Design the sequence.
């Protein structure tokens, strides 16, 4: 039945954005600028960390966080820009499922890396003398690969289950991109099992990483409050401010999006837009402007570039 339904309908209509030409033209320019800034910001952050030897160790996870940001944005925004210029706002079932897979994969990797960065901050602030032992090079590499592997497995399971659904009647997806929750309402099969698996995946991913984040920051706050000097406490808090901002933005919008109903409501689109378009742009800005080491590395790289000319 699933194969016959897939062959009966070959594409979806993505109708989550305004239909009038004036709004579409404005949104095209806006999202194009955001996408270009996202690419340049994340690539620049990776380049600064890679070219500044003193940033290799403390900013190791940050450079790897920028890569899924690039993937996340590149999976979604180009197709959205294409649909804004096209009268026929369609996407094939295969491309839709591929987009949903990479959205799930890169988003899951982001959440895991954010949790790993919280533990890294905990080790640096609470155990500075043992930081090198707690966060060895082998462990850091393993945590990065583990984040990608866990997200890949999670995305693969949910995407394969979604592929088995039948799509035979409703073609309209009330969103600007393909996400696994958005495909359930357009299926003519029973998607209750798919929703249960997706919910379990989201909860395990969310609560597992949230536990690590909250545990790390509970220990960090306890350690900071035990510091006697005001300047010491201020310096310790400043090292966590950028990461806390990223945690709030990503967890808030991403988890709410995957736990809310897929009704095509404005809030659903707002949360999808925030974590898929806005957050990949904000992450390099947050970490650049709130991190003295990154700003110093950027300044040094720019000075070296000017000397070449």
Sequence:
């Amino acid at each position: 039945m699933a194969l016959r339904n897939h062959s009966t309908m070959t594409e979806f209509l993505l109708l989550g954005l305004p239909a009038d030409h004036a709004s579409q033209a404005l949104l095209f320019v806006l999202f194009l600028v955001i996408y270009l800034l996202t690419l340049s910001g994340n690539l620049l952050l990776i380049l600064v960390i890679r070219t500044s030897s003193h940033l290799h160790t403390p900013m190791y996870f940050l450079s790897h966080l920028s890569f899924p940001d690039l993937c996340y944005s590149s999976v979604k925004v180009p197709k959205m820009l294409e649909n804004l210029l096209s009268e026929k706002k369609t996407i094939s079932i295969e491309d839709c499922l591929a987009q949903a897979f990479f959205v799930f994969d890169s988003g899951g990797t982001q959440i895991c890396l954010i949790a790993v960065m919280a533990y890294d901050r905990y080790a640096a602030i609470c155990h500075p003398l043992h930081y090198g032992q707690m966060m060895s090079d082998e462990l850091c590499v393993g945590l990065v690969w583990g984040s990608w592997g866990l997200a890949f497995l999670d995305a693969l399971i949910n995407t394969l289950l979604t592929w088995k659904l039948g799509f035979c009647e409703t073609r309209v997806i009330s969103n600007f991109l393909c996400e696994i929750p958005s495909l359930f309402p357009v299926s003519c099969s029973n998607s209750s099992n798919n929703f249960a698996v997706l919910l379990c995946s989201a909860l395990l991913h969310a609560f597992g990483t949230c536990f690590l984040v909250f545990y790390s920051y509970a220990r960090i706050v306890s350690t900071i409050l035990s510091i006697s000097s005001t300047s010491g406490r201020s310096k310790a808090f400043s090292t966590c401010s950028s990461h806390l901002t990223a945690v709030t933005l990503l967890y808030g919008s991403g988890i709410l999006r995957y736990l809310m109903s897929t009704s095509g409501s404005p809030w659903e689109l707002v949360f999808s837009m925030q974590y898929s378009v806005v957050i990949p742009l904000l992450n390099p800005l947050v970490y650049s402007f709130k991190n003295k080491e990154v700003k110093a590395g950027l300044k040094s790289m720019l000075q070296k570039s000017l000397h070449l000319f």
